[in-house]
Amino acid sequence: MGDATLGKGRPAPLLARWPRKALSLVVTVAVTLLGLLFVTFMIGRVMPIDPVLAVIGERATQAQYEAAYQALGLDRPLLVQFFSYVGEVLQGDFGRSLRTGQPVAQDIARVFPATLELATLGTLIGVSIGVPLGVLAAVYRGSWIDQIARILGLVGYSMPIFWLGLMGLLLFYGILGWVSGPGRLGVFYQGLVPTRTGLLLVDSAIAGDWTVFRDAFSHIILPASILGYFSLAYISRMTRSFMLEQLSSEYVTTARVKGLSEWHVVWRHAFRNISVQLITVIALSYANLLEGSVLTEIIFAWPGLGNYITTSLLANDMNAVLGGTVVIGTIFVCLNILSDILYRVFDPRAK
Amino acid sequence: MMHRSGLKAAAIAALMGATAMPALADTPPNMLIVASAIDDLITLDPAEAFEFSAGDVVDNVYEKLVSFDPTDLEAGYQPSLAESWEVSEDGTEITFTLAEDHVFASGNPVTANDAAYSLQRAVKLDKTPSFILTQFGFTADNVEERITAPDETTLVLTLDQPYAVSFVLNCLTATIASVVDSETVMANAGDDMGNTWLRNNSAGSGPYMLQSWTPDESYILQANENYSGEAPALPRIVVQHIPESATQRLQLERGDIDVARDLSPSDIAGIEGSEDIKVMDELRGRIQYWGANQKSDVLSNPQVIEAMKWATDYQGMADSFLSGQYNVHQAFLPETFLGAMTDTPYSFDIEKAQALMDESGVEDAAISMEVRDDQIDLGIAQSLQNTWGQIGIEVELNVGTGAQTLDVYRSRQHDIYLGAWGPDYPDPNTNAGTFAYNPDNSDEAQLTGLLAWRNAWAVPEAMNEATQAAVTEQDTEARAEQYMALQEEFAQTAPFGIMFQQVEQNAMRSEVEGWVAGGSITSVFYWAVSK
């Protein structure tokens, strides 16, 4: 993303640079999303599944089949179908989901906040424990804390998520009763706070309804912890290996020789230097959770994006799949842009 | 998929190891909370709804001219909105007299106009289930003349030919014959006769009204205060979408829900013996069968087909992986349907099957089987693969999603299709008309809705006629006998192997009373439940 002309002579005035950058960004994003849509659209059309059957079901007669075939516009050439779809998307119309019977945009506005809330809390848990754990494991390499980090990482890497989810439910919900069961909110609390963001914790906090907040929290904390654990396992492992590389560098030895405190060496020097790599790792892990964790969503009956897209794909509900793909594509593009910006903040070389 | 279910089995085994948990919470006394997989819901418009979960909603929100009594499903249709009916001498006209005390949730009285509007609307909208009505000769063009309401309490149906009155009335118990509040629907008609609006709103006169439906999450029904019958014991029904059996079981054990509808056999086994929970078994209408494409040289040999029927381990499957979920059943009509055959002429007999294969002259046959990637279907497919292999028929399994296998099936490209069939309306013709009827076997006919056509089976003329004759037989007992004879002949000659009928196991807290899931003919009756 570096600008090749930078560093040669005087940089162009800031105001003159921005429109060009913004334009190039918009073009990149548009081309990426269009390409993504194109590939998904074509995969959907060449899959050996008949999209008409998904609409009309098993019992329909040939006449109803033909009518639906025409209505879906499937008699037109593929490219025409694709561009007319893109035209509709540009007007905010993602079509209607065959599976839920609702407009796709409305469906996504419902399922995405559920995933966003879960993924954000999961990532917060993963980062707040994973990063310090990874750093400590690298600093005290071979110690008990390193062993713990390693075991946590290994288990997180190899244990099926739904098994951990079921065990978590059995222990914390079934036996101990510390948390609420599946779903986002108890039956009695549904519809009590107005929907503003779709994030129940935020909406209930805005409304000042702390009973609903507590109930939502007791529903989300277990699935978020389970997702957080998996992201913790990944983040701590990566942090550890980045830190080990830095700690064996000459500048660290130099800093130690200069008599700087260990704390200073580790956090001010070594850690600062891994922050850029770490941002990528965290962004990737966050993006992963935002795609939705299908199995966690199934076990916890969490009405999220992953489950929505998967179920739609199996039902050959291509409008829903394409809509979901656009959302996930946009997330990846946004997180990419965000990590680029953060690079510039943390890495003086990128400025 | 297999990988996942294998691991899941391990998880469930671990769950089962846990000791029984005390119920820590009770559901409120005025509310029924049900956990079920309800992601099949697409629409709640009775003219369009055709999914199992939708039937559960529509049948509790709307009333029909005739309906069932949950305490005696076998008695068949009973008066509901219609208090009586008369058939004209030539058998083509049915005149219903409507009861006067029924009222919609909106406060509007239910009149014959509403009934005529609802039936006309269903025919004109022409959604998938519309064939249940159009088979009596109604079309978008003639329906206004053929379904009329000469006054507030009289509804006249004019059929294109005489039909068995039991056939017509059975069809009128189907979801599509629900009576909607014409005034409310017309006020929200849009450009599609209110189809979009009724997808997630209700306008009925049943014991409940729809309060909300959030796809893949839940639906809530609230008692309809204008309901003319006895008010339901539980004024609020909450059905949550919980797809995972182990999760449903945990919720039930903790007392967070009253009824769990999708427990796996291992979870059912796990809760057996619990004092707080009971399990109710109910026969449903779904049957498991295989169909053999008659375009195949091997499969068009009747001795091969018969050999395959004998080389099926019915009881072995029913006692092992289908235990509690399916009973052995070998007729195309599910048990409790009028005229259903309960005999099981075939049993697992490899020697007999081998003898038939020897007679057939077919050696080392290799065929393929289309199977949905569903645990039950895969289990049955593997068992058939094993036992048919023993008589020299090598089976290759083509596993795909429901839509994929159906696509192959409808275009007659399969050898064997393994699948399930559920009746569309509670009359024997619903299955007879698809298994044992095929008026034109040519590819061009495209009778894709008929299972006989899909398997390229040229149904013998006598059987086609018998199927047709049974829908016009006025004497109900004679009609039942006709279906019996039809099923017997079908079991012997048809290229279909019918194997099992579904049993639904609903687990519930012991205080729940009056739960009826609808048997093989209809949907759940929430209003009959108390606790």
Give the key terms.
heterodimer, A: 351 residues, mainly alpha, MetI-like fold, 2 domains, 14 helices, 73% helix, globular, disordered N terminus, B: 531 residues, alpha+beta, Dipeptide-binding Protein, domain 1, Dipeptide-binding Protein, domain 3, 11-stranded mixed sheet, 4-stranded antiparallel sheet, 19 helices, 17 strands, 32% helix
What does this structure look like?
The complex is a heterodimer of chains A (351) and B (531). Chain A has helices at 14-46, 51-56, 62-71, 78-90, 104-139, 144-158, 161-175, 200-207, 210-247, 250-257, 262-290, 294-299, 305-314, 318-346. Chain A has 351 residues and is mainly α. Chain A has two domains: 14-90, no CATH class; 104-350, MetI-like fold, CATH 1.10.3720. The longest helix of chain A is centred in the middle third of the chain and has 38 residues, at 210-247. Chain B is an alpha+beta fold and 531 residues long. Among the domains of chain B are: 52-198, Alpha-Beta Complex (Dipeptide-binding Protein, domain 1); 284-504, Dipeptide-binding Protein, domain 3. Chain B is 32% helix and 20% strand. Chain B is built from 19 helices and 17 strands. Chain B has helices spanning 2-17, 52-61, 112-125, 131-134, 143-146, 165-171, 182-187, 195-199, 245-254, 265-271, 302-310, 314-319, 350-360, 375-389, 402-410, 429-435, 451-454, 461-470, 476-493; strands at residues 31-36, 66-67, 78-79, 82-87, 93-98, 147-151, 154-158, 208-214, 218-223, 236-241, 259-260, 277-292, 326-328, 365-372, 393-400, 416-421, 496-509. In chain B, the strands form three sheets. In chain B, strands 1, 8, 9, 10, 11, 12, 13, 14, 15, 16 and 17 form an eleven-stranded mixed β-sheet that branches. In chain B, strands 4-5-7-6 form a four-stranded antiparallel β-sheet. In chain B, helix 1 packs parallel to helix 10 and helix 18 (461-470) runs antiparallel to helix 19. Chain B starts with a helix and ends in a 22-residue tail after the last strand. Mean pLDDT of chain B is 91; it is low at 1-23. At the A-B interface, helix 2, helix 3, helix 5, helix 7 and helix 12 of A face helix 1, strand 10, helix 9 and helix 15 of B.
